[in-house]
Amino acid sequence: MMPLRYIFSLALVCLHTAAFAAPCVEPPPDPANTYDAQHTYEKLLRDYPSIRIASAALPVDVNRLGDQVYAQYGDRCLKLDLYLPLAARADVGMPVVVLVHGGGWRAGFRAEFAPMAVRLAQRGYAAVTVSYRLSGEAPYPAAIHDVRAAVRWVRGHAGQYRLDPRRIALAGGSAGGQIASLAGVTGHLDRFDPGAADSAVSSAVQAVVNIDGLSEFTTEAALKYEDDPRKQPSAAGAWFGGRYAEKSALWAEASPIRYVRPGMPPMLFIASAQARFSAGREEMAARMAQAGVASSTLVLPDTPHSFWLFDPWLQPAVDAVVAFLNRQMPGKG
């Protein structure tokens, strides 16, 4: 007899096979793209000798549906991986967390968030890790468009996978934290979502989690690093297609803090001990409070950037995400 997980996975994959019939092409591997857990571990081990790469092994109570195509531009396909708790109640849709990887807008892999996705699934959340077009392929705001398309795919497939379309959160780390924040706080603006014109399915979300990502590009602290003249170009400069002096309007437009308003999604900030990576966080939280919007902040002491890739820090981050989302997206029934 085939294992239950295999039967469940096979049935779901068969349902999805015909969604995109055109040829599907992904760019070849980029040898310069080294933002992953192993390379980061090698850089951090000397200063943090007790860290361990967090496991992405699939436990028996979680099912993974990999390589689902959520958007296609010509023959270029964008994919996501869906992690589902097998013990979810059949009568209540699962809340969802869509996870956006980091890498300075020009690098990284969706597998970065597989360990967090597994642990979220074990806590009753469906978790989705997404790939998006990096700056070398498509500059700002393509990544925002892609993430909004991923949210629409999730909501559009809610019935198929027993997801709750009323409880979808966006989360990300580093550049992914900024992307998730901007995509999340602009859910009311179709200019960040070209697909809105052709779909009745919303790409708005109900909560946002920004893990060590910028909230404001134009502060002195952010510009010191993101517009460093010694870098030609800097990571942000490559994404925007120019330095701050050349593309100041885009640098400002991409700052999530500019979109604080009553009724925006609540936000959890999880920060490392490296303050430069979360520039604008405190001011954004203050503006949200003035607008009557809930926010919460967790700063993990003595942590490097990219702490979510490693134990012992991943679990406290997951615990904070679950506690926050349980408050802000409570279930029905």
TrEMBL record:
Pfam family name, one: BD-FAE
InterPro entries: AB_hydrolase_fold, BD-FAE-like_dom, GDXG_lipolytic_enzyme
Keyword field contains Signal: yes
Domain BD-FAE-like: from-to ranges: 80-271
Gene3D superfamilies for this protein: alpha/beta hydrolase
Keywords from the UniProt entry: Hydrolase, Signal
Coiled coil, from the record: none
Top-level taxon in the UniProt lineage: Bacteria
One function term, GO molecular function aspect: hydrolase activity
Position of the signal peptide: 1-21
PANTHER family cross-referenced by the UniProt entry: AB HYDROLASE SUPERFAMILY PROTEIN C4A8.06C, ALPHA_BETA HYDROLASE
Name under which the protein is recorded: Alpha/beta hydrolase fold domain-containing protein
